[in-house]
Amino acid sequence: MTRVYLIGNGYVCNYITQMEVRDIEFVGVCRSEKMNCNINLKLDVSCDNEKIMSLIEDSSVVVYLAPPQQNGSTDLVLRNFLKCINKKKVDQIIYISTSGVYGDKNDRLVDENEPISPKTDRAKRRADAEEQIRSSDLDYTILRVPGIYGKDRMPLKRIEERLPLIKKEICKHTNLIHAKDLARIITACFHNKKTSKMTINVSDGCAIKTTDYYLHIYDFLNKPYPDFIDYEAANKSYDKKRLSFINESRILDTSLMDTIFPNIIEFKDVRDGIKYSLT
Q: Which of 100, 208, 245, 270 is 20–30 Å from 106 (CA)?
């Protein structure tokens, strides 16, 4: 029986614990009360140092999904976690990063050899976290993840508010992955020598224009389309977080993922993922 610690036991972990993985005992660690794991612990990895020190007692796998703090360009939360845990008991750490570390590549195809160039502080914290993981002397796998969608994680508020969309002919691409597919990839990394000391792009492999993603949701809900605007208008009306997404673009090359995990993606067509998430 392998014990797997889910650090930052949140949305994606609900899918991870539903995967059919044999001989696994999940330990969920987060700041709130949850009941989705074999063992659920309420613990703040940013400051509960005594609890962190005694957390990992036997050889285990760690899946690290805890977000960094809100400010700065270094991930102080991960730094504290790595300082406190018993590294000798960690057989493997799987770190869930973001494709945002690449920065703006102007719709260019990028593989894992592409130099990173994070623009936002949020992405800089993730880039710092990746370096911490690589320097930790642990056996690691880093997954660079794009936008995650799934049940209860759809942009329905924006749809309801009829947020204007970028004109289709000028809209840039985004990359997506359904939470169920991400969970499948994460569990496939457990004790997988092919992913040892690897950084891997993960997505559904089908980059899509952001506007098309929203229009597919409108179509499924049988709702009329909103207004269409250009980037100049969007920069005046979108909030800061939304702007950080529309002003950066890249197309993730998932060749490495496909080689290591052939046919692992269930929702290659985002319309299937939308249907699954909204029914």
A: 270
Domain ranges of the chain: 2-152+175-204+250-266
Contact assessment for residue 159 and residue 218, using Cβ atoms and an 8 Å cutoff: yes
Residue 242 has pLDDT above 90, yes or no: no
pLDDT tens, residue by residue, 63-83: 999 999 999 999 999 999 999
CATH class of 2-152+175-204+250-266: alpha beta
Q: Which residues contact 11 (CB under 8 A, 6 or more apart)?
A: 148, 150, 152, 153, 179
Upper half-sphere CA count for residue 103 (Cβ side, 13 Å): 10
Q: Give the pLDDT confidence score for residue 23 in this predicted structure.
A: 94
Summarize pLDDT for 79-131 with one digit per residue, the tens. Answer: 999 999 999 999 999 999 999 999 999 999 999 999 999 999 999 999 999 99
Mean per-residue pLDDT over the chain, rounded: 96
For residue 105, count other CB atoms closer than 10 A to its CB: 16
- Phi then psi for residue 202, to 5 deg, are -130, 135
| 137 φ/ψ angles, rounded to the nearest 5 degrees | 70, 10
| Structural contact between residues 228 and 164, judged by C-beta atoms closer than 8 angstroms | yes
Contact between residue 94 and residue 141 where contact means Cβ atoms under 8 Å apart: yes
Structure token digits, residue 33? 């009360």
Nearest-Å Rg of the Cα atoms of the chain is 19
Distance (Å) of CA 258 to CA 96, 202, 253, 262: 18, 9, 10, 5
